[in-house]
Amino acid sequence: MVTAALTISRQAVFPERGVIELTTIEVQPPASDQLVMRVRRVGICATDLHLLEGHIGDPFPLVPGHEFVGEVAAIGGDAAQRRNLAVGDRIAVEMQLPCGACPRCAEGRYNICDRDDPADGLPVGREYGVNIPRTAEPGLWGGYSDYLHVPAEAIVHRLPESVPWDTAALVEPLAVSFRAVQRGRVTEGDTVAIIGPGPVGLLVSAAAKIAGAARVVMVGTRPNRLDLARRFGTDFTVNSREVDDVRGAVAEALGGLADVVIEIAGVTDAQSLAVTLVRRGGRVVLAGACGWSADVTFGADRDLLTREIDVLPSFLSAGGYEPSIAALTDAAYPYADLVTHRFSLEQVSDAYDVVREKRDDVIKAVLVLAD
Ligand SMILES: [Zn+2]
Ligand SMILES: [Zn+2]
Protein backbone atom coordinates (compact mmCIF):
# COMPACT_ATOMS: atom_id res chain seq x y z
CA MET A 1 0.00 0.00 0.00
CA VAL A 2 1.26 3.46 -0.85
CA THR A 3 0.15 6.20 1.50
CA ALA A 4 0.19 9.80 0.40
CA ALA A 5 2.51 12.13 2.26
CA LEU A 6 0.76 14.18 4.92
CA THR A 7 2.57 17.35 3.94
CA ILE A 8 6.00 18.86 3.34
CA SER A 9 8.13 20.12 6.23
CA ARG A 10 10.80 22.77 6.10
CA GLN A 11 13.93 21.88 8.05
CA ALA A 12 17.24 23.45 8.99
CA VAL A 13 19.94 20.79 8.80
CA PHE A 14 23.58 20.54 9.85
CA PRO A 15 24.85 18.33 6.97
CA GLU A 16 28.35 18.42 8.41
CA ARG A 17 30.39 20.33 10.95
CA GLY A 18 30.03 24.12 10.60
CA VAL A 19 27.38 24.08 7.86
CA ILE A 20 23.67 25.02 8.11
CA GLU A 21 21.31 24.30 5.22
CA LEU A 22 17.62 24.81 4.66
CA THR A 23 15.79 21.96 3.02
CA THR A 24 12.45 20.15 2.94
CA ILE A 25 11.26 16.63 3.67
CA GLU A 26 8.01 14.73 3.15
CA VAL A 27 6.02 13.98 6.28
CA GLN A 28 4.38 10.55 6.30
CA PRO A 29 1.18 9.85 8.27
CA PRO A 30 1.88 8.38 11.73
CA ALA A 31 1.51 4.66 12.47
CA SER A 32 -1.12 3.67 15.01
CA ASP A 33 1.16 4.12 18.05
CA GLN A 34 2.72 7.39 16.82
CA LEU A 35 1.85 11.01 16.33
CA VAL A 36 3.21 13.90 14.31
CA MET A 37 3.69 17.24 16.07
CA ARG A 38 3.37 20.60 14.35
CA VAL A 39 6.21 22.62 15.88
CA ARG A 40 5.25 26.16 16.95
CA ARG A 41 8.41 27.27 18.74
CA VAL A 42 11.87 25.86 19.27
CA GLY A 43 14.35 27.50 21.59
CA ILE A 44 17.93 28.01 20.42
CA CYS A 45 20.24 26.44 23.00
CA ALA A 46 24.00 26.78 23.46
CA THR A 47 24.02 23.01 22.89
CA ASP A 48 22.86 23.60 19.29
CA LEU A 49 25.86 25.84 18.61
CA HIS A 50 28.21 23.28 20.17
CA LEU A 51 26.67 20.59 17.96
CA LEU A 52 27.25 22.70 14.86
CA GLU A 53 30.91 23.09 15.81
CA GLY A 54 31.26 19.34 16.27
CA HIS A 55 31.86 19.55 20.03
CA ILE A 56 29.23 16.93 20.82
CA GLY A 57 30.06 13.92 18.68
CA ASP A 58 29.50 13.63 14.98
CA PRO A 59 25.76 13.05 14.50
CA PHE A 60 25.56 14.53 11.01
CA PRO A 61 23.40 15.11 9.07
CA LEU A 62 21.43 16.47 12.03
CA VAL A 63 18.21 18.43 12.39
CA PRO A 64 18.95 20.27 15.66
CA GLY A 65 16.46 21.57 18.21
CA HIS A 66 15.35 19.98 21.48
CA GLU A 67 13.39 22.82 23.11
CA PHE A 68 10.19 22.45 21.09
CA VAL A 69 6.50 22.91 21.73
CA GLY A 70 3.58 22.63 19.36
CA GLU A 71 0.38 20.78 18.72
CA VAL A 72 -0.81 17.42 17.51
CA ALA A 73 -0.97 17.53 13.70
CA ALA A 74 -1.87 13.87 13.13
CA ILE A 75 -2.22 10.94 15.50
CA GLY A 76 -2.62 7.18 15.16
CA GLY A 77 -5.53 5.35 16.80
CA ASP A 78 -3.56 3.60 19.54
CA ALA A 79 -1.62 6.76 20.40
CA ALA A 80 -4.81 8.85 20.59
CA GLN A 81 -6.35 6.38 23.02
CA ARG A 82 -3.27 5.73 25.17
CA ARG A 83 -2.23 9.38 25.37
CA ASN A 84 -5.77 10.80 25.45
CA LEU A 85 -4.84 13.32 22.77
CA ALA A 86 -6.51 14.62 19.61
CA VAL A 87 -5.48 16.73 16.64
CA GLY A 88 -4.97 20.34 17.72
CA ASP A 89 -4.04 19.62 21.33
CA ARG A 90 -1.12 21.68 22.61
CA ILE A 91 1.81 19.53 23.71
CA ALA A 92 5.41 19.47 24.88
CA VAL A 93 7.49 16.42 23.99
CA GLU A 94 10.48 15.61 26.20
CA MET A 95 13.79 15.71 24.37
CA GLN A 96 14.70 12.18 25.42
CA LEU A 97 13.40 8.97 23.92
CA PRO A 98 14.02 6.45 26.70
CA CYS A 99 13.39 2.74 26.29
CA GLY A 100 11.24 2.53 29.41
CA ALA A 101 12.49 -1.00 30.13
CA CYS A 102 16.14 -0.92 31.18
CA PRO A 103 17.13 -0.83 34.89
CA ARG A 104 17.84 2.91 34.78
CA CYS A 105 14.46 3.69 33.20
CA ALA A 106 12.79 1.37 35.75
CA GLU A 107 14.16 3.46 38.61
CA GLY A 108 12.97 6.69 37.01
CA ARG A 109 16.37 7.85 35.84
CA TYR A 110 15.40 7.69 32.20
CA ASN A 111 17.77 10.56 31.42
CA ILE A 112 20.55 7.97 31.69
CA CYS A 113 18.62 5.25 29.82
CA ASP A 114 20.99 2.41 29.14
CA ARG A 115 19.32 0.83 26.14
CA ASP A 116 21.94 -0.55 23.84
CA ASP A 117 20.22 -2.07 20.85
CA PRO A 118 22.61 -2.45 17.95
CA ALA A 119 19.64 -3.41 15.77
CA ASP A 120 18.28 0.12 15.57
CA GLY A 121 21.70 1.63 14.86
CA LEU A 122 20.98 4.52 17.21
CA PRO A 123 23.08 5.71 20.15
CA VAL A 124 22.49 4.91 23.82
CA GLY A 125 20.55 7.78 25.33
CA ARG A 126 18.60 8.98 22.32
CA GLU A 127 17.87 12.70 22.29
CA TYR A 128 15.89 14.67 19.73
CA GLY A 129 18.02 17.27 18.00
CA VAL A 130 21.26 15.99 19.51
CA ASN A 131 22.23 12.49 18.50
CA ILE A 132 19.66 11.00 16.11
CA PRO A 133 20.83 11.62 12.55
CA ARG A 134 18.37 12.75 9.88
CA THR A 135 19.16 9.56 7.98
CA ALA A 136 17.19 7.57 10.59
CA GLU A 137 13.61 7.21 9.30
CA PRO A 138 11.44 9.27 9.10
CA GLY A 139 14.01 12.09 9.37
CA LEU A 140 11.89 14.24 11.70
CA TRP A 141 14.10 14.08 14.81
CA GLY A 142 14.78 17.72 15.54
CA GLY A 143 12.81 20.87 16.32
CA TYR A 144 14.25 23.09 13.59
CA SER A 145 11.46 21.69 11.47
CA ASP A 146 7.77 22.29 10.86
CA TYR A 147 6.99 18.73 11.94
CA LEU A 148 8.39 16.29 14.48
CA HIS A 149 8.00 12.51 14.61
CA VAL A 150 6.73 11.31 18.00
CA PRO A 151 7.10 7.54 18.43
CA ALA A 152 5.47 5.36 21.08
CA GLU A 153 8.36 5.71 23.55
CA ALA A 154 8.27 9.54 23.54
CA ILE A 155 7.10 11.29 26.71
CA VAL A 156 4.37 13.78 25.85
CA HIS A 157 2.78 16.39 28.10
CA ARG A 158 -0.30 18.48 27.55
CA LEU A 159 0.25 22.26 27.64
CA PRO A 160 -2.48 24.52 29.01
CA GLU A 161 -4.07 27.11 26.71
CA SER A 162 -3.10 29.88 29.10
CA VAL A 163 0.65 29.60 28.42
CA PRO A 164 1.62 31.61 25.30
CA TRP A 165 3.81 29.81 22.78
CA ASP A 166 6.87 32.00 23.36
CA THR A 167 6.76 31.28 27.08
CA ALA A 168 5.98 27.62 26.48
CA ALA A 169 9.30 27.37 24.60
CA LEU A 170 10.97 27.63 28.04
CA VAL A 171 9.44 24.35 29.20
CA GLU A 172 12.63 22.34 28.56
CA PRO A 173 15.18 24.72 30.15
CA LEU A 174 12.82 25.13 33.11
CA ALA A 175 12.52 21.35 33.36
CA VAL A 176 16.33 21.13 33.41
CA SER A 177 16.24 23.66 36.26
CA PHE A 178 13.72 21.67 38.26
CA ARG A 179 15.77 18.50 37.85
CA ALA A 180 18.82 20.31 39.24
CA VAL A 181 16.78 21.55 42.20
CA GLN A 182 15.39 18.05 42.77
CA ARG A 183 18.86 16.51 42.61
CA GLY A 184 19.97 19.01 45.25
CA ARG A 185 16.96 18.03 47.40
CA VAL A 186 16.17 21.71 47.91
CA THR A 187 13.45 21.95 50.55
CA GLU A 188 11.71 24.49 52.75
CA GLY A 189 14.15 26.85 54.42
CA ASP A 190 17.30 25.85 52.53
CA THR A 191 19.87 28.42 51.49
CA VAL A 192 20.96 28.05 47.87
CA ALA A 193 23.89 29.45 45.91
CA ILE A 194 23.64 29.34 42.10
CA ILE A 195 26.65 29.86 39.83
CA GLY A 196 25.86 31.02 36.29
CA PRO A 197 22.98 33.41 35.50
CA GLY A 198 22.37 32.17 31.95
CA PRO A 199 18.82 31.31 30.89
CA VAL A 200 18.85 28.07 32.88
CA GLY A 201 20.55 29.67 35.89
CA LEU A 202 17.86 32.34 36.07
CA LEU A 203 15.22 29.60 35.90
CA VAL A 204 17.05 27.60 38.61
CA SER A 205 16.61 30.62 40.86
CA ALA A 206 12.84 30.55 40.31
CA ALA A 207 12.70 26.75 40.68
CA ALA A 208 14.67 26.87 43.95
CA LYS A 209 12.27 29.45 45.38
CA ILE A 210 9.27 27.40 44.25
CA ALA A 211 10.83 24.40 46.02
CA GLY A 212 10.93 26.45 49.23
CA ALA A 213 14.43 27.94 49.34
CA ALA A 214 14.59 30.62 52.01
CA ARG A 215 17.49 32.56 50.52
CA VAL A 216 19.11 32.43 47.10
CA VAL A 217 22.40 34.02 46.10
CA MET A 218 23.42 34.21 42.42
CA VAL A 219 27.11 34.23 41.50
CA GLY A 220 27.98 35.57 38.04
CA THR A 221 30.01 38.08 36.10
CA ARG A 222 27.58 40.13 34.03
CA PRO A 223 25.77 42.92 35.92
CA ASN A 224 22.67 42.91 33.68
CA ARG A 225 22.16 39.18 34.25
CA LEU A 226 22.69 39.53 37.98
CA ASP A 227 20.08 42.32 38.06
CA LEU A 228 17.67 40.14 36.13
CA ALA A 229 18.19 37.28 38.59
CA ARG A 230 16.52 39.38 41.28
CA ARG A 231 13.31 39.21 39.26
CA PHE A 232 13.54 35.41 39.37
CA GLY A 233 13.68 35.00 43.12
CA THR A 234 17.36 35.75 43.77
CA ASP A 235 17.82 37.64 47.05
CA PHE A 236 21.52 38.48 46.77
CA THR A 237 24.05 38.68 43.95
CA VAL A 238 27.83 38.31 43.94
CA ASN A 239 29.87 39.51 40.98
CA SER A 240 32.82 37.15 40.98
CA ARG A 241 34.83 39.58 38.84
CA GLU A 242 34.51 42.34 41.38
CA VAL A 243 34.84 40.37 44.61
CA ASP A 244 38.15 38.87 45.75
CA ASP A 245 36.60 36.46 48.22
CA VAL A 246 33.53 34.89 46.59
CA ARG A 247 33.22 32.33 49.39
CA GLY A 248 33.18 35.07 52.01
CA ALA A 249 30.63 37.11 50.03
CA VAL A 250 28.30 34.09 49.66
CA ALA A 251 28.61 33.26 53.37
CA GLU A 252 27.83 36.84 54.28
CA ALA A 253 24.77 36.95 52.02
CA LEU A 254 23.36 33.65 53.28
CA GLY A 255 24.43 33.91 56.90
CA GLY A 256 26.79 30.96 56.41
CA LEU A 257 27.84 28.69 53.57
CA ALA A 258 25.03 27.34 51.38
CA ASP A 259 22.98 24.23 52.13
CA VAL A 260 22.87 23.61 48.39
CA VAL A 261 25.08 24.92 45.58
CA ILE A 262 23.90 24.57 41.98
CA GLU A 263 26.50 25.12 39.26
CA ILE A 264 25.11 25.84 35.78
CA ALA A 265 27.91 27.96 34.31
CA GLY A 266 29.35 25.05 32.32
CA VAL A 267 33.00 25.88 33.00
CA THR A 268 35.36 23.82 35.11
CA ASP A 269 36.42 26.79 37.27
CA ALA A 270 32.80 27.21 38.32
CA GLN A 271 32.61 23.53 39.31
CA SER A 272 35.80 23.85 41.35
CA LEU A 273 34.35 26.95 43.00
CA ALA A 274 31.00 25.24 43.69
CA VAL A 275 32.36 22.74 46.22
CA THR A 276 33.91 25.56 48.25
CA LEU A 277 30.62 27.45 48.69
CA VAL A 278 28.70 24.67 50.44
CA ARG A 279 28.47 24.00 54.16
CA ARG A 280 29.77 20.80 55.75
CA GLY A 281 27.48 17.93 54.75
CA GLY A 282 25.77 20.03 52.07
CA ARG A 283 24.85 19.19 48.49
CA VAL A 284 26.56 20.41 45.32
CA VAL A 285 24.71 19.99 42.02
CA LEU A 286 26.86 20.13 38.88
CA ALA A 287 24.47 20.84 36.02
CA GLY A 288 26.61 22.73 33.51
CA ALA A 289 28.09 20.94 30.48
CA CYS A 290 31.81 21.74 30.31
CA GLY A 291 32.74 19.78 27.19
CA TRP A 292 33.77 16.18 26.70
CA SER A 293 37.49 16.76 27.20
CA ALA A 294 37.19 18.91 30.34
CA ASP A 295 38.72 17.70 33.62
CA VAL A 296 37.78 19.31 36.92
CA THR A 297 39.97 19.74 39.98
CA PHE A 298 38.56 19.50 43.51
CA GLY A 299 40.27 19.65 46.88
CA ALA A 300 39.67 15.96 47.52
CA ASP A 301 40.17 15.99 51.29
CA ARG A 302 39.94 19.72 51.93
CA ASP A 303 36.59 20.29 50.18
CA LEU A 304 34.95 16.89 49.81
CA LEU A 305 36.12 14.09 52.11
CA THR A 306 36.46 15.87 55.42
CA ARG A 307 33.27 17.85 54.85
CA GLU A 308 31.32 14.87 53.45
CA ILE A 309 29.83 16.82 50.55
CA ASP A 310 27.25 15.19 48.28
CA VAL A 311 28.34 15.91 44.70
CA LEU A 312 25.34 15.38 42.44
CA PRO A 313 25.61 15.76 38.67
CA SER A 314 22.26 16.66 37.10
CA PHE A 315 21.80 15.65 33.48
CA LEU A 316 18.96 16.92 31.28
CA SER A 317 15.39 17.14 32.42
CA ALA A 318 14.00 13.81 33.70
CA GLY A 319 11.14 14.41 36.12
CA GLY A 320 11.29 18.14 35.47
CA TYR A 321 8.50 18.65 32.94
CA GLU A 322 5.58 18.34 35.37
CA PRO A 323 6.82 21.05 37.77
CA SER A 324 7.99 23.12 34.80
CA ILE A 325 4.54 23.16 33.18
CA ALA A 326 2.95 23.86 36.56
CA ALA A 327 5.31 26.81 37.10
CA LEU A 328 4.70 28.27 33.63
CA THR A 329 0.97 27.97 34.25
CA ASP A 330 1.25 29.56 37.66
CA ALA A 331 3.36 32.42 36.19
CA ALA A 332 4.74 33.56 39.54
CA TYR A 333 7.88 34.83 37.78
CA PRO A 334 8.18 36.91 34.56
CA TYR A 335 9.21 33.99 32.35
CA ALA A 336 8.12 35.73 29.14
CA ASP A 337 10.83 38.37 29.66
CA LEU A 338 13.53 35.73 29.09
CA VAL A 339 12.47 35.26 25.46
CA THR A 340 14.21 38.34 24.11
CA HIS A 341 14.56 37.39 20.41
CA ARG A 342 12.34 35.72 17.79
CA PHE A 343 13.54 34.55 14.38
CA SER A 344 12.04 32.67 11.44
CA LEU A 345 13.55 29.34 10.37
CA GLU A 346 15.13 31.09 7.38
CA GLN A 347 16.95 33.45 9.77
CA VAL A 348 18.65 30.69 11.73
CA SER A 349 22.19 31.80 10.78
CA ASP A 350 21.45 35.38 11.85
CA ALA A 351 20.01 34.05 15.09
CA TYR A 352 23.21 32.09 15.73
CA ASP A 353 25.32 35.24 15.24
CA VAL A 354 23.23 37.04 17.86
CA VAL A 355 23.40 34.15 20.32
CA ARG A 356 27.10 33.43 19.76
CA GLU A 357 28.13 37.05 20.22
CA LYS A 358 25.54 37.64 22.97
CA ARG A 359 24.33 40.69 21.03
CA ASP A 360 21.50 43.01 22.13
CA ASP A 361 21.41 41.55 25.66
CA VAL A 362 20.03 38.32 24.22
CA ILE A 363 18.87 35.84 26.82
CA LYS A 364 16.71 33.31 25.00
CA ALA A 365 16.18 33.33 21.24
CA VAL A 366 13.43 31.21 19.71
CA LEU A 367 12.63 30.14 16.19
CA VAL A 368 8.99 30.76 15.28
CA LEU A 369 7.90 27.88 13.04
CA ALA A 370 4.25 28.91 13.09
CA ASP A 371 2.58 31.81 14.88
ZN1 LIG B 1 18.80 23.18 25.72
ZN1 LIG C 1 16.04 2.72 29.28
Explain what the structure shows.
This protein is α/β, with parallel strands linked by helices and 371 residues long. It has two domains: 7-169 and 334-368, Medium-chain alcohol dehydrogenases, catalytic domain (Quinone Oxidoreductase, Chain A, domain 1); 173-313, Rossmann fold, CATH 3.40.50. The chain has helices spanning 46-52, 77-83, 103-106, 165-168, 171-183, 199-210, 223-229, 246-254, 268-274, 300-304, 321-330, 348-356; strands spanning 7-13, 21-27, 35-43, 67-75, 90-93, 147-150, 156-158, 191-195, 215-220, 236-239, 258-263, 278-286, 310-313, 339-343, 364-368. The longest helix has 13 residues, at 171-183. The model has no long low-confidence stretch (mean pLDDT 95). The site of one zinc ion has 10 residues, from α3.
**Major beta-sheet overview:** 7 strands, mixed
Compute the separation of the termini in Å. 35 Å
User: What percent of residues are in strands?
Assistant: 15-25%
Count of strand segments: 15
Say what the CATH topology of the largest domain is: Quinone Oxidoreductase, Chain A, domain 1
Q: Which stretches are low in confidence, meaning pLDDT under 50 for 5 or more residues running?
A: none
Order of helices and strands: EEEHEHEHEEHHEHEHEHEHEHEHEHE
Shape: globular
User: What is the radius of gyration?
Assistant: 21 Å
Summarize the structure.
By secondary structure, the chain is an alpha/beta fold.
What features would you highlight for this structure?
12 helices, binds zinc ion, single chain, globular, 371 residues, Quinone Oxidoreductase, Chain A, domain 1, Rossmann fold, alpha/beta, 2 domains, 7-stranded mixed sheet
